[in-house]
Structures are given as C-alpha cells and as structure tokens.
Amino acid sequence: MTPGHMSDHYSALHARLASGQAQVGVIGLGYVGLPLAVELARAGYTVIGFDVDAGKVASANRGENYVRDVDPGDFATVVENGRFRATQDFADLGAVDSVSICVPTPLSKTRDPDMSFINAAVDEILQYLPAGRLVVLESTTYPGTTKEFLLPRFEAKGWHAGDEVFLAFSPERVDPGNSAYKTRNTPKVVGGVTARCLDLAVQLYSRAVDCVVPVSSATTAEMVKLLENTFRAVNIGLINEMALMCDRLGVSVWEVVEAAGTKPFGFMKFKPGPGLGGHCIPVDPHYLSWKLRLLKYRARFIELAADVNSEMPGYVVSKVFEGLNRFHRSVNGSQIFVLGVAYKRDVGDVRESPALEVIELLQARGADVMYNDPFVPAIVVNGRPLHSIDLTMDLLRGSDCTVLITDHTCYDWDSIVSSSRLLIDTRNATAGRTADNIIKL
Ligand SMILES: NC(=O)c1ccc[n+]([C@@H]2O[C@H](COP(=O)([O-])OP(=O)(O)OC[C@H]3O[C@@H](n4cnc5c(N)ncnc54)[C@H](O)[C@@H]3O)[C@@H](O)[C@H]2O)c1
Fold first, then answer.
1. What totals of helices (H) and strands (E) does the chain contain, helices first?
2. Is residue 355 within 6 Å of ligand 1 at its C-beta?
3. pLDDT attached to residue 383
4. Could you give the residue ranges of the DSSP H alpha helices within 250-283?
C-alpha cells in the first residue's frame, strides 16, 4: 500500500496513533476494560473510559482500584496526570480517535449469544463517533461477529470498512489474579476487516503491549480466542473424566497427574476440580458451538467436555455423602462448611462458580450450609442470600463436614485438616497429608 492510495482518514489516524497524540476510548471498565485503559494511558495516550455503571465511573475517577489486576500505583498515576478519566456520557466519543469495546458477552438462558451489550455500545458509537475512527471489539464472541454483525451496522450508515470506519477484533487474554502476565507482557492478537483496519489496530496496541500478533482477518482473531478457551474447557473436561475413572479404579488422580507431569514433552498438566467456573471457560466454547450449529456442524468435543464438567458439582456432593456415611450420618440435617466460593484461587469472582451449585445441591438435600471466602462477602444461592462467616477452627469442629471448593492461598491447611471432622478436598490442597478424615476427588 503506498501513501498515495491511502484515504485521508487512514493517513490522518495513522499519524495521530503513531505520534501518541491520539485520544483513545474504552467502553466497559470491568476486568478487561480497566486494565486495558490504564495500560493505554501508561503508554502515553489520553484515555477516556466509558461505562454505564455510575459506581464504577466514580471509583475509576478517584483512581480506586476495584479490579485487583490493576497496579494501584499505575492507576493512581494515570488519574492524577490526567491521562485517564471515566465517564457515563457517551457524547465524549466525539473526541476519541479509537474505541475498544470491552462489554460483557454472556449467554442467554437458552445458551445462545447475548449480543445486547455489544449492540448497546455500538448504538452509542454510531450516534457519537465521528467518521474516520478505529473501532476494536475485544469482547469474546462467535467467529464472524465483527464482519457479519458489527460491519453491517456501520454500512447501514453509509460507512465502509477501511474508509469511514476501521474495524478490528482483538481478543482479550487477561488471566485474573495472574501476577506474571498482565496486559503489557501478554501478546495481543489482532485481526482487521481490511488491511488498513489491521494496520491501525496494530498501531494502537503496539504502544501499550510488548508483542502484537497480526492475523489475516477479524474472524481469524475471533477464532484464535475460541481455540484458546475451548482448549482449556476440553482439557479440563478430560482431566475431570480421568478423576471419575480413577475413582472407580481406586487410584489417586492427583498422583497420576503429578507423575504424568514429569514428562518433559508432549504433555501439559491440567488439574481436576469441582467444575468449571469463571466468566470465560464455561461460556466461550458455547459461542463457537452456537455458530457451528448454524452451519449444520456439531462441535462434539465442546459438548462432551461440557457434559463431563457439569457433572463435577454432583460428584463433589457424592463425596460428601460417602464421607458422612462413614459416621452414619445423612446430608439431611448435617452442618456443612464450604471453604472458598470464588471460581478460582485468590479472586473474588463467583460467576459460574461450581461452589454455587454444590451449595444448592447440598441445601436441596437438607444440609445446613455455611461458607467462608475472604474475597466474597456474600452470594445468592437459589434466590437466597448467604454471607461469608469468619473462619474459626471452632466452627469447623462443630461442623459435620468441611467442603473445600477454592484453595485460596491464605488458608492454613494444617489447622483446617486438624479441626475438620471430615474434609472433602476438591483441589488437592492437602497434598502430602494422609489424615483419615480427608477425602479427595
Ligand atoms: N474477565 C476475564 O477474565 C476475561 C478474559 C478475557 C475476555 N473476557 C471478555 O471480555 C468481555 C468483558 O468481560 P469483563 O470480565 O471485563 O466483564 P465485566 O462485567 O467485568 O465488565 C464489563 C463492563 O461493561 C460495562 N457495560 C455494560 N454494558 C455497557 C455499555 N452498553 N456501555 C458501557 N459499558 C457497559 C459494565 O458496567 C461493566 O463495568 C467479555 O466479552 C468477556 O468474555 C473476559
């Protein structure tokens, strides 16, 4: 592409991004959007964050770190030096050169993609964003969304990709709670609807991210994200089925996994657990299978992994039955203490957490369930609120069974093992201990 063939919009935007003078927008200031906004601001852009949640906007403007993955010092600095501000007023989109969309993409009750949040963000963009700007979708979604869903909305306004609007998809890879890999040092995949769209998106992110990985289309970039998360869902499904099989064979799945993990090539260690949780791994593969259903193809691995993974909370409950049986007790009427309800260690996120289903199943069978989670003060199970109770060893001694769902690093396992009458350990947190009162997956 020679400069002579470039549109005015393209050259002007390219220059603004390259000089670092651009103002950039981020729509949705959650787990994904806030760290991205802070990193873009640290890279020298002036960033405006947009959110419909007044509380988040106010916290963001005070530099209050409500997403644990953002470094508090970095956040405070970009707020103080004016590189970042948040607003609920989408009219400010009129001032940005690019906008990255980081809104939720949940599944509907029938497990179809719920595009309403993306749609609402695009409504605002269409109303306020001037021509010649870059729009990058970051929300995880089905392959084809950028080209088949976003682009037609701009075309309806008479705008063409690569001319009046530049459209790209760049999946977010943030791993909440991961202290080694953050926005800057996690390679970022980018795919554009046209070559110019790609070019500008690469330009935008290259300032803020050490390694940008361009791919040939937006649909390819969408598929990259779905491969990554389907890979995890399927491998977790496989290892969970291994746990079910090891149980029948009378061998410890944990010992099998550890030993297999010593193979230095051709094996990657996945751990079994109480079920899939979090906003991404249980949800994202269904985007892919939904899209493939439209193309009359059944995504078999995805379905199978979902079947196995969704059995795991019931399997945990069967272990509680087994343990209480030893003491001639039933679940009905037992006091059960659940340790950890977040979907994974050291985070406060309970979206899709298997703990919720385990608690619901236990309650449905007549158990009196309490829980402790230092990161989650309250949850709602089956429409009823439940509050985290301070963890005391007396409470464990007074309970019939302790069920460990989330192995937060702050838990003192020695005390927990010695104070629990019966401990169902779904995470192998008690590795190396062989007390009679422990039952592992
Ligand atoms: N959380 C993760 O670990 C993770 C990782 C990779 C990808 N993703 C994907 O990133 C996307 C965002 O996820 P998240 O975890 O950041 O969600 P989140 O719920 O933490 O944040 C989304 C934010 O968007 C805001 N919002 C909703 N509708 C809006 C609108 N119309 N305009 C402006 N703001 C709006 C919400 O108020 C919220 O603050 C999803 O598609 C998700 O699948 C998440």
1. 14, 15
2. no
3. 94
4. 253-260
Q: Does domain 240-440 have CATH number 3.40.50.720?
A: yes
Q: Please answer whether residues 45 and 59 qualify as being in contact, where contact means their C-beta atoms are separated by less than 8 angstroms.
A: no
Mean pLDDT of 13-18: 95
Q: How far apart are CA 196 and CA 186, in angstroms?
A: 24
Point out the least confidently predicted range of 60-64, 250-254, 387-391, 432-436: 432-436
Residue 386, beta-bridge partner list? 379
Does the Cβ of 33 fall within 6 Å of ligand 1?
A: yes
pLDDT for 66 equals 86
Interval 156-188: pLDDT, tens: 999 999 999 999 999 999 887 888 999 999 999
Where in the chain do CATH 3.40.50.720 domains reside? 3-216, 240-440
139 lines ligand 1 (CB under 6 A): yes
Ligand 1, atom nearest to 175 Cα:
3
Confidence of residue 3 (pLDDT cuts 50, 70, 90): very low
Q: How many CA atoms lie within 13 A of 12 on its CB side?
A: 12
Question: How many angstroms separate the alpha carbon of residue 34 from the centre of ligand 1?
Answer: 9
The DSSP bridge pattern shows strands 335-339 and 46-50 to be unpaired
Please list, in sequence order, all residues whose beta carbon lies within 8 angstroms of the beta carbon of residue 352, skipping any fewer than 6 positions away: 276, 277, 278, 279, 282, 283, 343
Probe residue for ligand 1, chosen from 61, 103, 172, 347 as the CB with the greatest number of ligand atoms within 8 Å: 103
Per residue in 278-334, pLDDT tens?
888 999 999 999 999 999 999 999 999 999 999 999 999 999 999 999 999 999 999
How far, in whole angstroms, is CA 390 from its chain's centroid?
Answer: 28
Q: In this structure, which topology does domain 3-216 adopt according to CATH?
A: Rossmann fold (3.40.50)
pLDDT at 207: 95
Token pair of 145 as six digits: 């969304």
> Which distant-in-sequence residues (6+ apart) come within 8 Å of 259 by Cβ?
none
Q: Would you call 102 a catalytic residue per the annotation?
A: no
Pocket test for ligand 1, best of 26, 29, 32 (most atoms within 8 A of CB): 32
Average pLDDT over residues 232-240: 97
